[in-house]
Amino acid sequence: MQWLVLGLILFLGVHSVRIVADDWRQQTIDRIGLGAWKALYSLLSAVGLVLIVWGYGLARQTPVVLWNPPLGMRHAASLLTLLAFVLLVAAYVPGNALKQRWQHPMVLGVKLWALAHLLANGTLADVLLFGGFLAWAVLDFRAARQRSAATSSTDDEDAEDRTTPSTAATVATVVVGVVAWAVFAFWAHTALIGVRPFG
Predict the structure, then answer these.
(1) What does the pLDDT look like over 47-62, one tens digit per residue?
(2) Euclidean distance between CA atoms 100 and 142, whole angstroms
(3) Where are the domains of the chain?
(4) Residue ranges of the NnrU domain (predicted)?
(5) N or C: which end of the chain has fewer CB within 10 A?
(6) Are 84 and 116 within 8 A, CB to CB?
(7) Does residue 94 contact residue 42 with C-beta atoms inside 8 Å?
């Protein structure tokens, strides 16, 4: 369990720098350069992610069960993860209505993904993993919205988000998100994680 906790601290800590120390982050980038910052950021994130995966795998071998979620929670989790996949795709498809409406769909998708897995799982490792990501996503989403509100009144960098969204882009976002969810739910989740969501 300690490896999972260490991985979460490292991974989420790196991803929280902009939330809690944005000025320090910018000063560090100015001092060492954007390339070096990105390299260090990526390295620490990768190490944290490896520790999370490894630590979670170890914790699953000797699970500490806190509660047994009812079967209906699996259905709720499936719906929430479907929405999460669509939001994840929305972060990368330009001109879609979901990105314009929510501004930061990837972080919102992480919130739904984490909440879904908390509803459907009841071990201590699950609470640490998905609860940690949910708490981070809530804080990051709020901080990102505050940054967007502050910058939108002073510049036009977010001009794309203020244009009329494309129906074609929005439909493509939903279709790709649903297909990606189906592939992951019915095949990749079992192959990569060893758990059948609909088993």
Answers:
(1) 999 999 999 999 999 9
(2) 16
(3) 1-62, 65-199
(4) 4-197
(5) C
(6) yes
(7) no
Inter-axis angle of helices 2-15 and 34-61, nearest 10: 150
CB environment 140-149: b (16+ within 10 A), e (fewer): bbebbeeeee
Whole-Å CA distances, 37 to 8, 45, 188? 20, 12, 33
Q: Is residue 130 a contact partner of residue 104, using CB atoms and an 8 Å limit?
A: no
Q: What is the pLDDT of residues 112-169, one digit of tens each?
A: 999 999 999 999 999 999 999 999 999 999 888 888 777 765 554 444 446 788 999 9
Nearest to 66 by CA among 114, 3, 22, 118: 118
Assigned token pair, 76: 């709720």
The amino acid sitting at 44 is L
Residues in the chain: 199
Nearest 5 degrees, angle CA 177-CA 92-CA 160? 125
Q: Which residues contact 75 (CB under 8 A, 6 or more apart)?
A: none
Question: Do residues 144 and 104 touch, judged by C-beta distance below 8 A?
Answer: yes
The position carrying tokens 């806190």 is 66
